[in-house]
From TrEMBL, chains A, B:
Superkingdom assignment: Bacteria
SMART domains to which the protein is assigned, alphabetical: Robl_LC7 (SM00960)
Lineage of source species: Bacteria, Pseudomonadati, Myxococcota, Polyangia, Polyangiales
Pfam families noted in UniProt: Robl_LC7 (PF03259)
Annotated Roadblock/LAMTOR2 domain residues: 7-97
Name the record gives this protein: Roadblock/LAMTOR2 domain-containing protein
Species this protein is from: Labilithrix luteola
Length: 121, 121
């Protein structure tokens, strides 16, 4: 199994594990897609760019507000959550979840997936 | 009691209610401080500007990632949390909490404070 196959397997696992996870993607810090499990109508490039921007602003906010190195950024909108976390080697794991999602479970699953990603990269 | 006194009381209440909340502030969407309970060494202007930037990027991310109108943005750094939520009339409530903070309790207290702020504004 190639590295990309392994990464895709981890992303799919994140989505099959919690039905509230609608999409997930692994993105480089400079905003390029590495692997993704996104719905067809979603534009890869836009998601990748937005995730990297969110991460760099999160890093600046964490530093300015004396919170240290950024580890996770969460945006809750009226239709659900966008969660981004650092997954090692300069990569970002993004998950989009519905508003019914249990946030504690989502963080748990994402941290596990990030650990698995670190082993593959 | 003036409106500003009331707002300061709500912010102080947020901090006395949970010892893990280190600072809180109420900021206008355009990045101006309305009321604050920040430690002395923290620069008001910088915090206000950073909160407004975080909110506007959160709004863009929520919209691009199809999450609807932004309601909350959370940044977790290695030293703790920065949480921002919309508190009505174009204002943003920011809380800075230590890494020991219980996130569920923090959101609960902040949502209550935001409801109180809405009544005052």
């Amino acid at each position: 199994m190639s590295r990309v196959d392994n990464l895709n397997r981890i992303l799919r696992g994140l989505q099959t594990g919690s039905p509230d996870v609608e999409a997930s993607a692994l993105i480089s810090e400079d905003g390029l897609m590495i692997a993704s499990a996104l719905p067809q109508h979603v534009d890869d490039t836009r998601v990748a760019g937005m995730t990297a921007t969110l991460s760099s602003l999160g890093a600046r906010a964490a530093s300015e507000l004396e919170r240290g190195t950024v580890q996770e950024v969460l945006v809750r909108g009226e239709h659900g959550y966008a969660v981004m976390l650092a997954s090692g080697s300069g990569t970002l794991l993004l998950a989009l979840a519905s508003k019914q999602a249990k946030l504690g479970l989502l963080f748990l699953d994402m941290r596990r997936a990030a650990d698995d990603i670190r082993k593959v990269l």
